[in-house]
Amino acid sequence: MIPRHLVIGVAAMLVLVLSMSLYLRQMRRRAAELQATAADARPVAPPASGPTETVTLYVADDEAGILRPRSAQIPLPGGRQQRAEELLRALLGIYQQPGSPHPLAPAADIRSIYLVDPGVAVIDLNAPFADQHRSGILDEQLTVNSLVETLAVNVPGVRRVRILVEGRTRETLAGHADLTEFFDVTAVGQALAEKARQ
Questions:
Q1: Number of domains within the chain
Q2: Residues 126 and 56 in one domain
Q3: Phi and psi for 123 in degrees, rounded to 5?
Q4: Is 74 helix (H, G, I), strand (E, B) or coil?
Q5: CB 192 within 8 A of CB 67
Q6: Could you tell me if 98 and 21 lie in one domain?
Q7: How confident is the model over 125-148, as pLDDT tens digits?
Q8: Are residues 182 and 125 in the same domain?
Q9: How many angstroms separate the CA atoms of 58 and 141, rounded?
Q10: How far apart are CA 8 and CA 5, in angstroms?
């Protein structure tokens, strides 16, 4: 017969091994959560304050190759520049969600928008926006048109838009869409209307 103290010792060891394996599993889950949080390199912008307004965001649809207007309720601050930044950040938020119709990198962000009179807007993107953007004529043009049209429809008086990356002129977004020139809002709107009629 097996001595009683040996049975108790083996049972205690089994309980200890089981509890350690549960603890290890919990620690691995926490480490994975922390790693996922650390991988999100987007800068944290302060939350927008101001009254909530209904705006129209022009969301790119890669499958159809067009922009689709989408209404959204977002808080908008009083200043024109801050309003413009919040509009485009709301648009990027749609693109950075799982299952987005036009996915962008999680670290992509708008550094700033400068509204220069008469009727010029300068969008300054961060480096990950351009460096991690999918390369392709249609993908890049949809992104540019989405930014320009969303800004033009919601910020009165914008007639031309310039896109910079990290405060500097860049030849292309990801190899195709020319960023060296201004984008004429009327021309972009007409191109979008023609595409929608096709």
A1: 2
A2: yes
A3: -100, 125
A4: strand
A5: yes
A6: no
A7: 998 888 888 888 888 888 889 999
A8: yes
A9: 13
A10: 5
